[in-house]
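In response to the reviewer comment on reproducibility (Comment 2.3), we provide here a single inverse folding case reported in full, input and output, so that an independent group could reproduce the run without further information from us. The structure tokens appear first.
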């Protein structure tokens, strides 16, 4: 449980960890108590000395919680973003004074990072919204509540102010956001539907990849999939995310022998598929965030959005048709 108050320049949050948290890693328990902050952000703050217990700094995010403990966390206000607003066309599925839902094209990076300092969705949003985005995401990620990969297309929600961001983040943390992806996978599954429940973490062999790991190392990740259409040595499937981890659909589908067609990291396409992809000029994983549903964090009304397959995936689907 967490409560707090605002002071100029920073926010002070009082955290009470009860007996139910006993044995948890500190950063995990903090993340459960403050869903508006990511576990990585809490690790950084803890190591920087922003977390105290009885007036003394606690700098190790990996220590085990004893239970019935009180902590104080000082969260500095986000510094002004140095990202440049850029006039990049956006497809807006919904917008009001609190949030907007964007239908992102494949190839557009969500937020600035090494190798992509501009030309991102954040740059486009700063231009579109005139700078009115939630600061919770930090300097590089204003307004960003969740993200999808650069080469994945489809829907994501963006917060215009902190209250909207906090309300949306709680829904993502509680796994109540309805997210469904359409994917074209290699080979036809033998079953009509299934569930992959396998924890994910950064690969110890390649930090750019995500891997299935033991429960003590990774975050729980659950993907529910169902077969929609049988194709030629491929299939169109719908994947409903119970959790939303980095590369979740790509890793989970590859783990059951059905990597995404065109995925350059987690799958090797069949020779026939590679030739077809080259002919079509399709050079990405065949993945599209097709449905997004959540409760509006301010008005409390239920919102639901659908995005049709983009033209490149439609062409691939037609070319693979039986």
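Designed residues, in position order:
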């Amino acid at each position: 449980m967490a409560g707090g108050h605002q002071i100029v320049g920073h926010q002070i949050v009082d955290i009470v960890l009860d007996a139910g948290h006993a044995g948890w890693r500190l950063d995990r328990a903090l993340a459960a108590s403050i869903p508006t902050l990511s576990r990585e952000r809490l690790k950084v703050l803890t190591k920087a000395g922003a977390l105290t217990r009885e007036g003394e700094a606690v700098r190790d995010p990996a220590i085990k919680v004893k239970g019935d403990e009180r902590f104080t966390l000082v969260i500095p206000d986000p510094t002004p973003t140095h990202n440049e607003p850029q006039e990049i066309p956006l497809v807006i599925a919904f917008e009001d004074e609190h949030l907007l839902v964007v239908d992102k094209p494949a190839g557009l990076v969500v937020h600035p990072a090494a190798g992509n300092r501009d030309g991102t969705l954040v740059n486009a949003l700063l231009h579109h919204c005139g700078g009115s985005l939630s600061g919770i995401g930090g300097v590089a990620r204003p307004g960003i509540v969740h993200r999808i990969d650069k080469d994945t297309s489809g829907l994501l929600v963006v917060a215009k102010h902190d209250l909207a961001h906090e309300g949306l983040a709680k829904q993502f943390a509680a796994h109540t956001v309805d997210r469904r992806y359409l994917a074209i996978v290699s080979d036809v599954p033998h079953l009509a539907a299934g569930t992959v429940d396998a924890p994910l973490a950064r690969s110890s062999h390649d930090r750019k990849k995500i891997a299935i790991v033991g429960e003590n190392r990774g975050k729980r990740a659950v993907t529910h999939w169902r077969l929609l259409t049988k194709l030629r040595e491929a299939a169109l499937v719908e994947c409903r995310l119970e959790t939303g981890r980095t590369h979740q659909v790509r890793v989970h589908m590859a783990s059951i022998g059905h990597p995404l067609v065109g995925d350059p990291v987690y799958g090797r396409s069949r020779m026939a598929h590679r030739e077809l992809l080259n002919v079509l000029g399709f050079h990405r994983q065949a993945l599209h965030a097709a449905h997004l549903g959540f409760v509006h964090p301010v008005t409390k009304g239920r919102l639901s959005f659908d995005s049709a397959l983009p033209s490149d995936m439609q062409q691939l689907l037609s070319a693979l048709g039986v």
